[in-house]
Every structure is written in C-alpha cells, then in structure tokens.
Amino acid sequence: MKKRENRGTLRKLWTYLKPYRVALLILGLCALLCNAGNLLGPMLAGSAIAEAEAGMGQVNFSRVVYYAGWMLGLYVGSNLLSLAVSMGMMRLSRRVAKQLRRDVFDKLSALPVGYFDRNPAGDIISRVSYDVDVVSTSLATDITQMMTSVVTVVGSFIMMCTISLPLTCCMLVTIPISLLYTRYRSRRIRPLYARRSAAYGEMNGFVEEMFSGQKTILAYAYEEEACRRFSRSNRQAADAYNEAEQMGVVMGPTMGFINNLGLALIGLVGALLYAQNIVTLASISSFVLYSRKFSGPINEFANVINEIFSALSAAERVFRFLEEEEETPDAPDAAVLERAEGNVAMEHVRFGYVPERVVLKDLSLRAETGQTVAIVGATGAGKTTIINLLMRFYDVDAGGIYVDGREIRALTRASLRRSYAMVLQDTWVFQGTIFDNIAYGKENASMEEVEAAARAAHIHSYIMSLPQGYQTVLREDGGNISKGQKQLLTIARAMLYDTSMLILDEATSNVDTATERRVQQAMAALMRGKTSFVIAHRLSTIQEADQILVVEQGDVVEQGTHRQLMDKKGKYYQMYASQFE
After folding, report:
1. Which helix (H) or strand (E) segment is 434 a member of?
2. Minimal CB count within 10 Å: which of 80, 285, 286, 304?
3. Is the pLDDT of residue 401 over 90?
C-alpha cells in the first residue's frame, strides 16, 4: 500500500516537473558529460602508473605529466559542469516550490470554512512552508545526486569489466548484500519520516495557538503549564526526528562496511592475479579507483534515500492537502445576485456541524427589506450558526434559506456574499495602511469616501492624530493599535462597503460605552433601508430592532419587538431583567 502511495506521490510531483522536462534533459546530459570526465580519470591514472612501471628506473616524466594534465583538465571541467547542474536544479526546484505554494494558497481560498474549523492553523502553515521547503531541497540536491550516481555506477561497472572480469566478480559479491540491506532498512525508515512530518505539523499548530493566546496565558499565569505542554509536543517531535535519523544514520556506516569488505576482497584477489601476471599493477590501481567510484554512490544513496523518504512524506502531506474536498461548486445554472432587495427567509432549517450533533433543529425566520432583526440567546444557542448559514459558509441539512424569493443554493456564492457587509466580534485587519484596511471591500475607493466612513465610525480624529494619518502602516493583525480601534476600523470598512444587507456580530463589544453610543447612532444611519441581522448580548443595543428572535437550543422560542417581548414576561424578559436588575 505504501509503495503505491509513493508511486502516486511521484506521479503528482512529475506533473510539476513536466513543464521543465527540456531543462531536465539538458541537465541530465550535463550530468552525463560531467561523470564521463570523472570516469576517464582513473584510466588516465592507470596509464600514468603504467608509464612509471614500464620505465623501470627510466621514467618518462613528460608522458606522466601529459596524463596528469589531462586528468586535471577533465576533473576541472567535470566540476564546472557539476556546479552548473547544481545551480540549474536549484533554480528549477525554486520554481516548482513557487508553483506548489501558489497551488496551496489557491487551495486555501477554495476550501470550505469547516476545514479551518477542524484543522489547526499551525499544521496548515507547516504544509505551506516546512513541507514545501523539504520537497524543494530534495529536488535541488537529491535528484542531482541520483542522476550523477546512476551514471557513475553504470560507467564504473563497464570500465571495471573491461579491466578484469575476475576482479569485477569479487566486487559483485557485495552488491546483493547492499541491495537487500537497503531494501530492509527502507521499509523501516519510510513510516518514520511520515510520523516526523506529522509531529512537526502538530507542534507548529500548538505554537500558533500559544502565540495567538499569549495575553490570556500571561493573565492566567499559565506560562509554566504552557511550557510543559510545549515541552511534551517538542519532545514528541524531537523523538520522531531522532528515531527517523537514527534509523537513517545507521545505513551509511553499514553500507560503507559492506563496500570495504568488497575492497578487501579485491585487494586479496588482485594480489593473487598480479603474482600470476594475469593483471598489471596499473590495472589494479585503475580498478581500485573505479571500485571506489562504483561503491561511493551506492554508499551515498544510503544517505540520500533518507532525505528522499523525508521529501516523499512531506510531498504526500502537501498533495493530500491539495486533494481536500473543496466547497460544493455553484450549481451550473446558478444565478448572480446583482442587487439584493433584502427579503430574507429561513424556513424549517435543520443543521449540525457534525451529523450526530444538531445545532439548529427547526428554525424559521423572516426579514423584510430594510428591517433590523436582532438575534439573542445564551452562548451555544446557535446565533453565530445562523450567520454562517446566511453567508453560506455551510449548507443547511434540511429546509431552505431564501433571498428575494430565491433559494441561496441557486445563487453563486460570490454574489451572495458580496451582498452582505459584515462586522464581527473577532476583528481582522491586515498588514498595510489604514487607508487600505478601510477600503478593503471597495475597489478604487477615494480618500474622501474613506474619510467619510471613518468619520461616521468615530475614528477619523484618532487616525489624524497618528504621524502618517491614513498612510500609517498597521503591523500584522493590527498589533500597534488597540482592540477597540481595530473594531472601529472594521465598522468603517462596513460603512464604506455599499450593500443591501448587513451582519453585525457583537460589533461594538470592544468599544467603551461613550463611543458605543456614537457608533450606534452612525450604525443606525448605516442600517437605514438595509436588511440587518444583529447578534447582541447587550440587550440595550437592540431595543429599536424591528423584530427580536430569542434562540434557545437551536429553535426560535420567542419573536417580536422589544416592547412585545417585555410584555410577554418570558425568556427575553428574564434575560433583560438579569442585565438591568
């Protein structure tokens, strides 16, 4: 099974190398010429020794220098060709890695939201960076070494056969031992490298989690436990690495020992043949040099194979990621939602993130154009799930969701999502200028439009107090501004984004009470004439909503205006009383 997986991985890798097959052919020919020059060296060395042996005290040094000069020239030329091959493979591997990373990143944008809910970010990042780097390094070094090794082994074997068949037979005695040993160790090593890649992915996931929650760790004095947990994860990754490397390290010395046995056998048989004048001293010298060239790549192969298995394991993780199931494609006849009027309905919706746990059981709601619908309820009641379904981050298991009378699965996802502006509790800003962050959702937005949105969100004065104003560059995740200011930026972004529907998920949870009042006024203007879905825990912010839905355990248990629900003295009344008691 594992062999088939490796063959499948190699076939997929070849699809990335195939566009460069001409370059690979040229590099292969250069490797052939490089090794041909190296293979002629021992023959020239034998000729030089033959000249010295024939002179018997009257050595023709000019002929010896002649052969030595040719050896030097061939080795210099071969090394230059070898350098060119290495540089060529390095450039080729960088291009393959670039394409792999592009495909992985494109895949990220095509995956459903559920994939990111199920998999840690660190493991995904590990596949984009570490695993692709391992594949790239292997392409740059191991393939070159494999190409040259094949030529060297075949060429050396042919040259040894031409020098002495008896000595070649001595050399061949150790080859089956080497092959059997390599095959045995390879079977043991292959799963260890797969385990190592997985362990590194898990460790990266843990590190990413700790970085994102650093302030919480410090606030709860959890540093020692976090360090202990990291130590366990780090130890598991280190153990997986050491186990794979220890298994691999043994191969090199063992192969060297087997090859040295062959060399000792050659020395013994060669001495006997020389004593009987069957071979000359020059032939033995050349044969020994060729035998070293023959056994050297086999010995190196034992080391290279470890890196190849590591690269195959990394490539397998990357290709497995690229084969993950993407979002369900839009229906072939899916319509584009040009400009939504804002009539939204959910009818008898049933949904669960996993089949065995239903979150929404039989939920129905209706929002007319321009209405503000507030959704309240305890944590885990299903409020955010409703938003996920409205945006079609997930598809319903049963029932239907309609926009302007059309089921959203009959609309393209892109046009549906463009019809909503969102402000979430978890703010997101990217590394770039404040202007770029506010204008994120509107192409070719002018400075006047961005400033107007910032003023409406009550953050213009703060922005102007910064040295570069709207050209101030935010660090990654907005680390150089407060959380409340980040939330105001996302509110300004939503105000600039001209849509007919809004989703506000605890949109003012990170601003102070005074600012919240001003922002609520601005948002009231923003929401005028637009269908708005508001998730709120602070019930004071939704009293003017056209209808309020109280969600409990996946069902709407109460529905009405603030005054109607207060008069009923039901669940909403209890929630309101608990906040303002």
Report:
1. helix 434-438
2. 80
3. yes
Kindly report the length of the chain: 581
Number of helical H runs and strand E runs in the chain? 21, 12
Tell me the β-bridge partners of 558: 550
Torsions phi, psi of 164, nearest 5? -165, 115
Whether the CA torsion 275, 278, 283, 288 is positive or negative: it is: negative
**pLDDT (tens digit per residue) in 480-529:** 777 778 888 888 888 888 788 988 887 666 666 766 776 677 677 677 78
Pairing of strands 344-351, 360-367: antiparallel
Residue 174 has pLDDT above 80, yes or no: no
Are β-strands 432-433 and 547-552 bridged in parallel, bridged antiparallel, or unpaired?
unpaired
Write out the E strands in 112-198: none
User: pLDDT of 382-396, one tens digit each?
Assistant: 788 888 899 898 899
**Residues forming a β-bridge with 548:** 374, 560
Q: Are 150 and 296 in contact (CB under 8 A)?
A: no
Report the distance separating Cα 8 and Cα 65, nearest Å: 53
Please measure the distance between the N-terminal and C-terminal CA atoms of the chain and give it in whole angstroms. Answer: 66
Q: Which among 239, 161, 160, 166 is positioned nearest to 199, based on CA atoms?
A: 239
For residues 581 and 140, give the distance between their C-alpha atoms in angstroms, rounded to a whole number: 70
- Contacts of residue 334, Cβ cutoff 8 Å, sequence gap at least 6: 410, 411, 412
Tell me the longest C-alpha to C-alpha distance in the chain: 123
Contact 205, 233 (CB under 8 A): no
Return d(Cα 333, Cα 411) in angstroms, integer.
8
Instruction: Give which of 362, 496, 355 is closest to 421, Cα–Cα.
Output: 496
Contact between 539 and 579 under an 8 Å Cβ cutoff? The reply is yes
Burial 15-50 (b: 16+ CB within 10 A, else e): ebbeebeeebeebbebbbbbbebbbbbbbbbbbbbb
Residue 511, φ and ψ in degrees, nearest 5:
-115, 155
Give CA–CA dist 199/201, Å, rounded. 5
Sequence-ordered list of residues with C-beta below 8 angstroms from that of 119, at least 6 positions apart, any chain: none
Measured CA to CA, the distance from residue 543 to residue 537 in angstroms comes to 12
Q: What are phi and psi of 279, to 5 degrees?
A: -130, 155
Has this prediction a pTM greater than 0.85?
no
